[in-house]
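Task card 7
Instruction: Convert sequence to structure tokens.
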Amino acid sequence: MKDEKSDAKLSEQQTDAQSKADVNETKPPEQRTGVQQKGDTEGLLEELQEKIKDYEAEIEDLLDKYRRKAAAFSNYRKRQERERDLQSIRLRGEVLGELLPIADDFRRALQNLPDQAREKEWAEGILLIQRKLERLLDKYEVTPIEALGEPFDPHYHSALLQAESEEYPAGTVMEEVEKGYLVGDRVLRPALVKVSLGPKSNRDESAARDET
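Output:
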């Protein structure tokens, strides 16, 4: 009889322990107790850490793509601005270039004007038009190229003739046939010039040395 009571009590204890374990399993992870709760928490943390790593890698990839596209767009915008500026300079140069022969004609007309005619009304009208034209060129940054007495520079000068000169050293511009112009720092039209070969005596001495 005593053994039966002991067996019944043991069975009751086992049933109670099993019930508590079943109840513990049905609880949320944060409410579970014992070793199982600890194991579940560690597994959850590892899973969250892996997800965080994945998100960080994805964010870095998106940021890299954004930086690349932003740099490409910035380069494109700079290239467009540069091309637009160059196009503007070309168009302005073409228009201003058409005015240069007119400015040349007015300058030559005034240079060859007889002294007795300079006080005439029509002569004053020509002078007034030339001044307005010069102001217009100056407004658009058109400036004359310095040529007379300067060393010949193929970037700014175009040689039409060469001649001996006692006044100008060899390789120096001795006469400006047609004035050249710059628009900003760009050559609008090179100066058409005559270049000195130097004094004739120097050329004779040089030729004599070459013969010996």
